[in-house]
Amino acid sequence: MADIPAQAREDIIRAGRRMDERQWVPATAGNISVRIAGERIAITRSGQHKGFLSPESVIEVDLRGRPLNPADKPSAETLLHCQIYEQFEAVGAVVHGHSVANTVLSMVEPRDFLRFENYEILKIFENQPTHEVALDLPLFSNSQDMVALCGMILPKMSAMPLGYLIRGHGVYVWGADMDVALARLEALEFLLACELAHRGLK
CA–CA separation, 110 vs 94, rounded Å? Predict the structure, then answer.
């Protein structure tokens, strides 16, 4: 516990409270992580309500998802965080949420992506100088086999400006630091809410 920087704990706790306030992480859903050094990640402990995180709710794992303290239990989805950090050296934070909008849309969309076009807020995502663009959010089938799920996601990771969405499970969004990751999550949830309203779904 002492090896995890206080700032990393604070960033994760702050993110959890904000995501809880926005109803993006009901009950114990979702998980949050930050890269802390080299091949080490600070991530929420399994089974934690994200609105009530404490410093003890944050544990340390390596890039294979193994806890540095064998007594700690990381989230089942830790490998998905690890995959993002391995693929993108500039990523410093990953957030995963389960909103109503992302859950409903993931279950009703027949294509393997959701497309967003001409929204001003698209400019918040990396390398988007204008709103006059169409960006796709990839959709993947849910699986309890994290290794298999990572295998499905990997081939598309080079083209994920918005993050990605797992059907019935939630979104994964990342950024250079927690502030960027949270801003992108908020932007994506706005887009998803707009799409939900456009389709007349509740």
Answer: 27
**DSSP states of the chain:** -TTS-HHHHHHHHHHHHHHHHTTSS-TT--EEEEEEETTEEEEEBTT--GGG--GGGEEEEETTS-BSSTT--B-TTHHHHHHHHHH-TT--EEEEE--HHHHHHHHH--SSEEEEES-GGGGGSTT---S--EEEEEEE---S-HHHHHHHHGGGGGG-SS-EEETTTEEEEEESSHHHHHHHHHHHHHHHHHHHHHTT--
What are the CA-CA distances from residue 43 to residues 113, 153, 195 (Å)?
Answer: 28, 20, 31
Residue closest to 192 by CA, chosen among 108, 130, 127, 131: 108
Q: Tens digit of pLDDT for each residue in 50-87?
A: 999 999 999 999 999 999 999 998 888 999 999 999 99
Q: Which two tokens stand for residue 73?
A: 């239990």
Contact predicate 195/114, CB 8 Å: yes
Rounded to whole angstroms, how far apart are CA atoms 197 and 55? 38
**pLDDT tens per residue across span 3-20:** 899 999 999 999 999 999
Can you list the domains of the chain with their CATH numbers? 6-198 (3.40.225.10)
Query: Which tokens go with 60?
Result: 């340390």
Decide: pTM greater than 0.85.
Answer: yes
- Does residue 2 register a pLDDT over 60? no
